[in-house]
Design brief:
Blueprint: H1 3-12, E1 21-25, E2 31-35, E3 39-43, E4 58-62, E5 65-69, E6 72-78, E7 81-85, H2 90-100, E8 105-111, E9 116-121, E10 125-131, E11 140-146, E12 149-154, E13 159-163, E14 169-171, E15 177-180
Antiparallel strand pairs: 1-2, 2-5, 3-4, 5-11, 6-7, 6-10, 8-9, 8-15, 9-10, 11-12, 12-13, 13-14
């Protein structure tokens, strides 16, 4: 198995047959998709923080796994028909989040030549992610957070991976990779 494929399989196989939940369209064109068992995460206040929100305790429901589309442009389609994309209104982005709710990722394709990723879902949805035209080389297109580990694809095609608490290793993928889950 090619090293890029192995890396994708190692991380994304943990999401096999797990429906995503609490899908949200966040700041800008960010998308957050939670998978796995929910848990409540409490962050204690930071008394001297500049932002008022950081001075207060917060409690959030998070999954074991989080796929966060951060700095990538994206398009969501169903049955080959484009429905929404990252440059649309907040309402359009929220519709995509609602459409992704409950779907399971069935495959992940990394098309190295264009640093494009295609996430296929079991109910016919497809999320295609690529770098914005003005992306910096080290801009993260997406992150997959696992317990204690992270996998990140950067706009230059480099993959960062490793323990969350350490500086991740950088891996240079060599070619197209594809992983089918389940």
């Amino acid at each position: 198995m090619h090293p890029t494929t192995s890396l994708l399989a190692e991380h994304f196989s943990l999401l096999a047959a797990q429906p995503c939940w609490q899908c949200t369209a966040n700041y800008g064109s960010w998308l957050s998709l939670h998978f796995g068992q929910p848990r409540i995460v409490v962050r204690e206040p930071v008394p001297n923080a500049k932002r008022l929100s950081m001075q207060r305790r917060s409690a959030d429901v998070q999954g074991d796994f989080l796929l966060w589309i951060e700095m990538g442009a994206w398009e969501y389609s169903e049955e080959g028909k484009p429905l929404q994309h990252s440059e649309q209104s907040r309402e359009a982005l929220q519709k995509v989040a609602a459409l992704l709710q409950g779907q399971c990722i069935s495959s992940v394709q990394l098309l190295h030549a264009r640093t494009e990723t295609i996430f296929d879902f079991d109910q016919g949805g497809q999320l295609r992610v690529w770098p914005h035209a003005d992306a910096s080389a080290d801009d993260p297109l997406w992150h997959l957070y696992l317990p204690e580990k992270i996998l990140t694809l950067q706009a230059d095609g480099l993959i960062a991976h490793g323990p969350v608490s350490e500086q991740p290793s950088i891996f240079i993928p060599g070619k197209t990779a594809s992983v089918t889950l389940g």
